[in-house]
Amino acid sequence: MNIIAFILIFLFVPETKRKTLEELDGVFGTPVRTFMNYQISKVLPYWWKRYIFFQKQVHLEPLYQEENLARS
Question: Of 2, 10, 55, 72, which has the most beta carbons under 10 Å away?
């Protein structure tokens, strides 16, 4: 049961840590299919290479573009 919960959370729940309200609008505005595709094709291989094979030079490209919202 825990494995099923982990898989569902991995595929359907986006990370919202340290995001502004405007960025959260973009996060939850992204289609679920796009998010799932990103998790399977980018995040899963990244975790595998980084934490199983200990390759420190591996980089994960972000799904969401971080915008600098600070105004002068």
Answer: 10
28, 36, 38, 25: which is closest to 67 by C-alpha? Answer: 25
Distance CA(24)–CA(7), nearest Å, equals: 22
Q: Are 27 and 63 in contact (CB under 8 A)?
A: no
Phi and psi at residue 54, to the nearest 5°: 55, 40
Residue the block writes with tokens 């992204």: 30
- Side-chain-side CA neighbours of 4 within 13 Å: the count stands at 1
pTM above 0.85, yes or no: no
Q: Report yes or no: 61 and 42 within 8 Å, Cβ to Cβ.
A: yes
